[in-house]
Specification:
525 residues
């Protein structure tokens, strides 16, 4: 009982520390990725795109117009219809958006990125807990197994992949949790000798939550199913196989009852068709995997993956030559395979099938990849150095991993701390009337909706010719005595447009400010 209390206190201390780190990092987030803007809009607005409003283009709007897309209004608190309807018409299942919608209630009436970040921080409390439970199984039989498990679980929670996952206001933190819960439950299934109805129910609920969060989760689950299918057939445990299969079938049926549009998304939607076509292009398979290996190295190993691979190869060769090979016991080997095989195959499949070769598609298994690599490194050290020295060497390596982002100047994804100054400037001293020369072929408006939610007065001129008469009409009655801001996206003749604005509105000076995600910004005065 005393050891149990110490274990719980140690876990709580780690969770508090990681939360402090997450809050510190999140405080520096200064902008939104377009997909993060969609997260808020799809959870709240009455349509997918704010640009679909009849009054969006060619009229003046205040910041409240854009805040309506990003924030739940006081009179909309209990209107959850957009959560379901928007996902039906988009490409993702609705569970994450439902959770985000609940969090947005607490900031109703105004917009805050903390609605999404706090949700992810809360999710990562459970991510670390389940990572710890998985690691306890891996380190079972080792001295101080609980301490080793919690240290490595904490390290996996603060690698760049995890920090990026927390500050990325998307469904990928929840998908990471789904993967870890499913992994832990399948480890328990591997250890189970008898039919455990409660465990099968838990697996079914986990599978239901996973598929209602992100469809790529099915890649991970499918590999696990094949592993257990082979095992149960080989061991002639047909009754257990029947229970397991029916569990996943029922989870699938309930999923389709809740959200039947999944089938259309996966097999007939543009994103599902894109996944299928990616598999058909065999010449892109290896480049896609290589690209995502680079991403994995950067975000999961803070740039040190080649170093650890070289050291591990050297240790493996040395152990072979000196006949000091380590061996897993049967149960540990089985648990390792339950984690390793789905992780590596999920990585390969998503690397090939994902529309863009970026972190978010592989992030659900980055933590697992990290702990598996460190665990194997630790096991390769033991035949040569023994347990005590191996502990010290692994701790030294983890410290190097910890400080490497500062030495190598690595940063989490989507932090946008370089945008802080321009956002403050545009929402402060330079909060002037904005004319956005918007080209339909020049990128999505939602790339920069964050800054528009801070501008007092803006006008989106869609595919408009920059002429004296058009400018005079737009600015009729507007006070532009202190100047104005010109935004331009796409491949437009920036110099020509600025010259016409200056001559038409009697300005003499033009300063090019820092660019935003999809547009150039000019201060004309």
């Amino acid at each position: 009982m005393k050891n149990r209390t110490k274990e719980i206190l140690l876990v709580i201390m780690v969770l508090i520390l990681q939360t402090i780190i997450y809050v510190f990092v999140a405080k520096n987030k200064s902008y939104l990725h377009i997909d993060e803007a969609y997260s808020f809009g799809l959870s709240n607005y009455d349509k997918i795109e704010i640009q679909d409003n009849d009054d969006f283009y060619n009229t003046w709007h205040s910041k409240d117009y854009y805040l309506d897309y990003l924030a739940v209004q006081k009179d909309e608190i209990w209107d959850f219809k957009p959560v379901y309807e928007n996902q039906k018409n988009d490409v993702h299942p609705p569970l994450y958006y439902l959770l985000l919608r609940f969090c947005m209630i607490f900031t109703s009436g105004h917009f805050s990125i903390w609605s999404g970040i706090v949700l992810n921080i809360f999710i990562y409390v459970f991510v670390t807990i389940f990572m710890y439970l998985i690691l306890k199984r891996l380190f079972r039989g080792e001295n101080f197994a609980n301490v080793k498990a919690i240290v490595l679980a904490f390290m996996s929670s603060i690698i760049l992949a995890s920090l990026s996952n927390v500050i990325n206001i998307r469904m990928y933190a929840l998908s990471t949790l789904n993967v870890l819960i499913t992994t832990f439950l399948h480890i328990k299934l591997f250890e189970s000798k008898d039919i455990n109805v409660k465990l099968f129910i838990a697996i079914g609920v986990s599978a239901l939550a996973g598929v209602l969060t992100h469809y790529f989760y099915l890649f991970f689950l499918a590999v696990l199913y094949i592993i257990f299918l082979i095992r149960y057939i080989r061991e002639k445990q047909f009754k257990k196989l029947l229970f397991y299969t029916l569990t996943l079938i029922f989870a699938g049926v309930f999923s389709l009852m809740i959200f039947p549009y999944s089938l259309n998304h996966m097999f007939f939607g543009y994103r599902g068709q894109g996944v299928i076509s990616n598999f058909e292009n065999i010449f892109d398979i290896l480049p896609s995997i290589y690209s995502q290996l680079y991403t994995l190295n950067y975000y999961a190993f803070n740039g040190l993956l080649p170093v650890i691979i070289i050291i591990m190869i050297a240790l493996f060769v040395y152990n072979k030559l000196t006949k000091r090979n380590f061996k897993f016991d049967k149960d540990t080997k089985g648990i390792f395979n339950v984690i390793f095989i789905p992780t590596i195959l999920f990585f390969i499949i998503t690397s090939v099938s994902s529309p863009w070769k970026v972190l978010r598609y592989i992030v659900p298994v980055c933590g697992l990849a990290f702990i598996l690599m460190i665990f194997c490194f630790y096991k390769l050290l033991q035949p040569k150095f023994g347990e005590k020295m191996s502990n010290i060497l692994v701790c030294v390596f983890l410290c190097i991993v910890l400080i490497s982002p500062f030495v190598l100047h690595l940063k989490p994804e989507l932090l946008y701390n370089d945008r802080k100054e321009i956002v403050q400037k545009l929402s402060g001293d330079l909060n002037l009337p904005v004319l956005y020369f918007y080209s339909s072929n020049g990128g999505g408006f939602l790339d920069d909706i964050f800054v528009f939610s801070k501008l007092n007065d803006s006008y989106i001129a869609r595919d408009m010719d920059c002429t004296d008469s058009n400018l005079q009409k737009i600015f009729e009655g507007k006070d532009i005595s202190k100047g104005l801001l010109i935004f331009m996206n796409g491949d437009q003749d920036y110099e020509y447009i600025i010259n016409v604005v200056e001559s038409s509105l009697n300005f003499e000076n033009c300063e090019q400010l820092q660019s935003l995600s999809s547009c150039q910004v000019y201060y004309v005065h």
